[in-house]
Design brief:
Largest sheet: 2 strands, parallel
Strand order of the largest sheet: 1-2
Number of helices: 3
Number of strands: 4
Structural class: alpha+beta
Distance between the termini: 18 Å
Order of helices and strands: HHEHEEE
Shape: globular
Radius of gyration: 15 Å
């Protein structure tokens, strides 16, 4: 909770990434709803702000996941991951998809 408060106090938006980081496509409708609701409720209680977006674990999507996110009135956020080899290291850069605004404060 302290880290979440600190992030919000610094002006950042905190989004939903689900409670247990499961592949949402494999969850029952009840568990899917619970993952979204439980996380959004906890984040709202900690931050005082309504959660406005969700990034599904692993970027895993299907029609049921999209529908559940839409019912909860959340913006769906996905990322493009680009890798670049540097010597023996691999550097990963993540950026929002083109044309998709960042999450807003609720």
């Amino acid at each position: 909770p302290g880290l979440t408060r600190s992030v919000v106090e610094r002006g950042h938006v905190v989004g939903n990434h689900t409670w247990a980081h499961r592949d949402m496509r494999r969850l029952s409708p009840r568990r899917l709803k619970d993952q979204i609701t439980r996380t959004s409720d906890a984040l709202r209680k900690i931050s005082g702000q309504r959660v406005t977006c969700l990034r599904p674990p692993y970027g895993a999507l299907n029609g049921r996941v999209r529908s559940a996110v839409r019912v909860k009135e959340l913006a769906l956020k996905l990322y493009v991951v680009l890798t670049r080899a540097v010597s023996r290291l691999s550097v990963v850069h993540a950026k929002p998809l083109p044309g998709r605004p960042p999450c807003s404060r609720g």
